[in-house]
């Protein structure tokens, strides 16, 4: 009997404690009303200030729709959508997504087909920008903010060794060789740790096609990279968009491309005014940069589609685009939005503007994530392990053909 | 002479280990209050020569600190409290079972720890999303308990197993009932182990990242805020936020270290 009372007491204490905690912690936060839009964006503190103070309040006032703008990196958006789609309970309405990560979202079926909403796209949009969200003839994303990497260099070190930022592949090799000879270790780096953006630039600059991977251009690019590799910094194999800032600011590397947000971190916060930027260098065929930036999409199954489209339309207006150019230094996708950035940021903006003129998006195919893996593997085998370029490319052809065939079957 | 040498060697060893452990925190703090020119160089100085508190001012003025700090505190404390309430009695009961059954329980508990968090995070996130637990403190506490309950049970099983049964029996002979024996004899003796386990649970929950990433939308915990600054912010803001993340850990450890006395049980049974 005593034992039973003791057990009941113990269970009672446990239940009471659990309930009190449940009450203290609270359930889910306040549910969003139908007139509230959840929008994800990946912005820096400075960019959030502009968004929260200048862009969103005007829309909320004008439309009566509340916008819940949520900080989320592109890679995390996919995870969230995976969970919410599988749970059939979607909390995100609009995503402002990195243009080079959209293929997977489309392939997974997370995005609303906006083909009947293309009238939202302003007529003054640059032709290439109209195409960035189109997959298999259907429009899933609408243009918003084009972006492109610029090539940062350490002017102090370049001046010290009598170097100029490279304008072609020969000069790049000379710069890399000189810096390695002078300092004993490689001081030129690229981001080749899984990100294919710069690898694709090399392939395209030599006239290659990243969806073919067995043409003369790809062979030329990989052969050149094999030659360049011994003179590059070891950071090439671990560089990401965030670590690149540290490499440049701490003088670990003297030449490395990155997205323009790095300017505020390295030069603005870090005070490294001797780190300048150019639009990059040309390959044997032409100069090509990979188009980046963000596009806007509506998540499939949202109950707020009309409000979502209204918000997208607002972000695409000339007035908002002009504001984002002026305050954030974001180049616009609209040809009628002009202006320039003044002050210390001006040369970096000019480099970005010049790079955007020669930028091309990664191929708009839903199987691009699989091709990215192949490109990375090919790079590892040829440039890191030093295998013969033509043999490796030949070996990868059946894999590429299989990926394409499976994608065709899935359509 | 040999004893003195041994003592001296021990002090040196402790000093080296302590220095290695404190160094990362010092470097974080140092970067957060140094001027850029002192940090952004190939050979940064070890000591601080030019103090610059503007990074901390920016962090506090940004308005991004208090909500994540509050959420992290609520979730870590909630996880710790709930885990203790559930696990302490359960572990005591398991510890009094036969050796074979006890082993079965331990094996079952550790079965859940065999899978990496990142592997189970998605299915858990799907279930919790279906239950409307995204963005709620309670949802995150529940998610953290999945990881922490087996861990705490493992620690407390050893603690309760080490308490001689004779101690309870003596209390029962003296007229105490089972509940009183547990409350006045077993739990006080086990307080050291419970405190250590609770501290570990609090620290694990405080630092947890994967579940927080999946189960947060409009609100963030402090590790998510640090992650944001690592991705998007400057070097100094990242260092300031990381220091903030480390400070409560140091304080909690400092406060609870009094329970980490050895030979706590000595003399309990006469």
UniProtKB/TrEMBL annotation, chain A:
InterPro entries, alphabetized: Bact_solute-bd_prot1, SBP
UniProt-listed SUPFAM superfamilies: Periplasmic binding protein-like II (SSF53850)
PROSITE patterns: PROKAR_LIPOPROTEIN
UniProt keyword list: Signal, Transport
Signal sequence annotation: 1-24
Keyword DNA-binding tagged: no
Top-level division of the source organism's lineage: Bacteria
Cited Gene3D superfamilies: Periplasmic binding protein-like II (3.40.190.10)
Similarity-based family: Belongs to the bacterial solute-binding protein 1 family.
Entry protein name: ABC transporter substrate-binding protein
Species this protein is from: Lapidilactobacillus achengensis
UniProtKB/TrEMBL annotation, chain B:
Statement: the UniProt record of this protein carries the keyword Cell membrane: yes
Domain ABC transmembrane type-1: 69-256
Keywords per UniProt: Cell membrane, Membrane, Sugar transport, Transmembrane, Transmembrane helix, Transport
One Pfam family named in its UniProt record: BPD_transp_1
Membrane-protein topology: Multi-pass membrane protein
PROSITE patterns on file: ABC_TM1 (PS50928)
TM region(s), chain numbering: 12-29, 73-94, 106-126, 138-160, 181-203, 239-260
Listed InterPro entries: BP-dep_ABC_trans_perm, MetI-like, MetI-like_sf
Family recorded in the similarity comment: Belongs to the binding-protein-dependent transport system permease family. MalFG subfamily.
Protein known as: Carbohydrate ABC transporter permease
Organism: Lapidilactobacillus achengensis
